[in-house]
Amino acid sequence: MDAFTRFTNQAQGRDRLFRATQYTCMLLRYLLEPKAGKEKVVMKLKKLESSVSTGRKWFRLGNVVHAVQATQQSIHAADLVPRFCLTLANLNRVIYFICDTVLWVRSVGLASGVNKEKWQMWAARHYCCSVLLSLLRDLYEISLQMEQVAHDRAKREESSSQVPLGYSVADEETEWLQSFLLLLFRSLKKHPPLLLDTVKNVCDVLNPLDQLGIYKSNPGLIGLGGLVSSIAGIITVAYPQMKLKTH
């Protein structure tokens, strides 16, 4: 109970819970819309989704400052590739949150002259760039992990006088895809924060790709992706050791 209280006391924790609720409503609405007699339930889900989305904007008002701080931290990363990817990703997040704030100001009637469609496209474009750059960093980290796992396996085979049962050099040459997938599985299994971050970013990229018209998805897929991403975010907030660290 104390852990839950600490979690909900954090702005990020509350935002993740609201986000999970928002995308759950979107997913349920998509599943119920084709069914007869569910019109009232669908309307209630739509209203709840809209209310939660509006509430989330209050939690995001200070995210520009957090994104600027994250940019300052990523500049000092020791490895060049994460430094490049994360710095650019965080800069795009800063611009995204600025666009999001402008849209919020318009929605409350403080700047009715703002072109909503134009700012929404800018927000989607910079959010998409941020997520893709984060995914690029994940792929780089995965390649390092796979290299390490392959190196460890090679050392074990050198020290062993017997080839493991069911494995041969010919198998690796002819069934390279199976070998690659097995290596990928072992690498991610050894590094759960990397797996969690990769899954989160893959799910996050669906919405902006749909908004930009690059890859059209249905609300059900976007809702499912948003829900999975939100659960991954909740895990990283509740258990900080599951957050992918920058070295």
UniProtKB/TrEMBL annotation:
Keyword Membrane appears in the UniProt entry: yes
Alphabetic keyword roster: Membrane, Peroxisome, Peroxisome biogenesis, Transmembrane, Transmembrane helix
Annotated InterPro entries: PEX11
GO CC annotations on file: peroxisomal membrane
Signal peptide: none
Organism, scientific name: Equus asinus (Donkey)
UniProt record, GO biological process: peroxisome fission
Name assigned to this protein: Peroxisomal biosis factor 11 alpha
Transmembrane segments: 220-239
Compartments where found: Peroxisome membrane
Chief location category: membrane
